[in-house]
Fold:
Amino acid sequence: MQRENLRENMLLGMGNPLLDISATVDKEFLTKYNMKENNAILADESHKNLYSEMIEKYKAEFIAGGSVQNSLRVAQWLLQKPKVTTFFGCVGTDKYSQILKDKAKADGVNVVYQYNDKVPTGTCAVLITGTNRSLCANLAAANCFTIDHIRDAENRKLLENAQYFYISGFFITVSPQSILEVAKHALANDRPFIMNLSAPFISQFYKEPLMQVMPYIDLLFGNETEAETFATEQNFGTKDLKEIALKICKLPKQNENRPRVCVITTGHNPVILAREGKISEFPVDVLSKDKLVDTNGAGDAFAGGFLSQYIQGQSLDVCVRCGIWAASQIVQRSGCTFSGKATFQP
Structure:
């Protein structure tokens, strides 16, 4: 059922558009490239043969990816009205960026890429071992995003018309300046600014830019590993996820009229939601092992499901339930993909 208040360009997302190269591999392959299960890293010199070896050795699939773009695609699937979401990110001028654009547009996202003709479109190796996944991103063009893109007159209009803003923690490695500009715009216009912790390395190695933007964050997503790493880096002195969520809510905040909400997903354990000093927990439908195909994209799908309801003014409880529903659909398929009509009932 479409709600009357949906319009184009309500939710603006910024992130790294990547083409996922996904394959089921053995643990030795992970070890060879110094990768861990359920982790996400940026590629370095030691990973230069990873992508070609994956394609040669294993049955690799090419899937449209990039955390925020995935979340927006899932939100669009649930919203059933095209172009409610808009996406900014940087790609190369090559066949990979065309695949990405076609896929995201087919799913209803208004894709507004910045193009770089010197660097190829970014890719992300998705190594699946059983029900775990490990990510290694070669950002390439995604790393070339510049603030000029959000200052361009046409794009500025999109920024000014958007009511909600969602940016991945991953994007902090690319353009913290752009994130702060959007965050300050959201604050000045009293519009929700939403981020995701994205991966443990963001809290570890990009602490300063992350904490610069933290006061603007109205809603923060993360999984248990990301939340624990953040807590360690910030010297919270606890590994209790509920405590951590509450402490994140209490970190200094610019817009005190909008208390921060923190949502932590914990795999098949209940989702933790902290707001105004209180914790709510939401059970997750545990799927049988034979239904679990690929956990890559579960977090993106959760955020997309949550945001699809959040921008319609639904209660946080409905938002979380929709996030859980979306994630449970996505893990039954390869990559962050879906088919047919979304059947979530608020």
The chain is about 35% helix and 25% strand. The longest helix spans residues 316-330. The radius of gyration is 19 Å.
